[in-house]
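MODEL INPUT / OUTPUT PAIR
PAIR INDEX: 1
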Amino acid sequence: VALQRGKSCLGPALVAAAVPAMAFAVLRPLLFAQPARLASRGFSATSTARPLCSRVWPAVLTSRGAGTTATEAPTNPLLDISGLPKFGVIDPSHIEPAMSSVLSSLRESFKTFEAELPKKEKSYEEVVESIEKMNFPLAYGWGVVSHLNGVMNSDPLRKAHEAAEPEVVKVSMEMGQSRPVYDALTELERKELTETQKRVVESNLRKMKLSGVDLDSEAKEEFNTIALKLSELGTKFQNNLLDASKAFELILTDSADLAGLPPTALAAAAQSQTQAHPPEDGAPAPTAD
């Protein structure tokens, strides 16, 4: 599983933990609005991707009639893509209805897009940017869920993540193996493009090939089965790693072993010890000293 960090619209490439390595390599340019692509449309590329998204995407999505703006005030925070994620109010119970809604809408939109694509002019805007905008609600919502699963892991969150993950992977693979999209990108590659646009198109074509777009039906079915299994194992590995990290502790009784640590680190260690092993009644609590 590719646990790489990418400067995408969501900052770290959070869906890497959910999508197999090859599949993620294919889908990353489709699922995330990269600064380089936005630069090709007149926006300033920057390494601080999140502020760029919060400024650009609400206007873009509103203009195309996609997504949810702040004025619509969705009750599910995972469906509100008008700005930064509302981590303070997101609950595991939001995940299933949000992902079901996003995936259903995406499947329907993409099916229509595929049907109309052969008749459309093969421009960068109509092909590449349309796919990015279509994918943004999924990238945003699932990115938030994956992030929370990594930093605020709990049994309810794990169960909700594991329940939604297979469908997220399936939809992503369906899009990454779309023949109409591949053919449109192939035609687009032959047209006059900016250097940045050409690089994006070539990269997407290469990655779609690696995702199995050219495989026959039987081989593609086997590929997708393996992809789902890799996704499941990747999430299991991540959870095991989190559990092992939480369970690990190193108890030091000689202050000489702490020589050189700053006061903030000593205070954090003392607090961690108190939380993990509350002192018995009347016993002194550990301190930074």
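PAIR INDEX: 2
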Amino acid sequence: TCINRSCGSKLWTFLFGTCSTERVFQRKLACAMSSTVKFNVSGKVYEVLREPTLALHPNSVLCQLAEEWDQQDPIFLEADPDLFKYIIEYHRHRKIYLPISIPKASVLREAAVLGLEMRDADIEQEEPGLLAFSQKVDATERMMRECKADTLVQLIIKQAIVKSAHMGGKTFVVKLDDMKADSPKVKVYQTEYQCQHREVPEFHFVFKFLASACDANMKTHIQSRLDSWSQRNGYRAKLRTFSEDNLDVLFEV
């Protein structure tokens, strides 16, 4: 039997489809033959089971990408490689056990990008132990002391800049009273009936708060910051007095 080229082409298309359809069919066939899929997550490769892991969430981005995988290079994902393992854990168990060091919000954000309808209730966060809680409190207190010290340093430097301009390069002293002089005053009532009061610089209370954590470490921190500024500006700074009620810093030429 003789079949011309036109008829043969139509017969081939009828039996096997177009070339693009054939390639899609071959790719899907190859995917079906592989039980795992590889994902390159920002440089870190994960190998994941199709069944049952990905198949449990057919609408997720990972499952849809896996259907198109040609088994050549791993599927590249621009995602957080450290959080991706929790995304896979959710695919497996529909539940995540998250360590205290990782915020829930970061995992929920990654899940939303990858097409997973993950809820806050799906994540079980690790409870901090007593030791970990104590360490976290200590770290917070240290950070607060450093913030207070840095604020005081900036206030001292502000006064030092003004005084150095007035003194013309001579030795000068920055005192607590210098800072209070620039501060607005507030009324402080001396009796419970509020019939007598006195005016006190607002900075009086601010300074008490900033200096409330005064200890040897805080003094060292302040002195170190003042040394950095004074050396750049041709002075030698010395924190002579520092307490909740007094401050005295000498700037020598």
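PAIR 2 NOTE: The first helix runs from residue 5 to 16.
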